[in-house]
Amino acid sequence: MLHRNKPCQSNKNWVPPAMIDQLVTSWEAIKHAGLPDGQAIRATMHFHLGLGIYLLVGAFTRQGLRSRAGLVLISLLEIGNEILDLARFFPKIPAWLWHDTLADLFNTLFWPVVLYALAGLWERRKAGTASASSAVSSASAADGDVS
Prior knowledge:
This protein is mainly α. The protein has four helices and no strands. The chain has helices at residues 18-34, 39-61, 68-87, 95-146.
């Protein structure tokens, strides 16, 4: 359970609604049941889950590595996860938690963003090669008509 101060009019002792409290508590219970304790394993899971969800959405939407929907989905899921993590300590969020939050965002989004960018570069390079070869064949055909 979250530790709470008694509700009062001051913003310092803000108490979130019971629904948010229950959501945060449930989410933490799910994470603790599914993952062993330890920062290293949790960081690894951010890499794996981010990449796995991105690849699944890309396959499902048939967009492959150029799936914007995959990037949007993992971004929203990770932001939601971090909001729930931060909510445990709100309104007094410790400095170390901000560092962990940024590290989790990086770990989750790194490979999907890299793959998305590389796929875009590959498409542009392929399109550039195709248009260059098309221009060469057009020029050859025009030269053949002139002779």
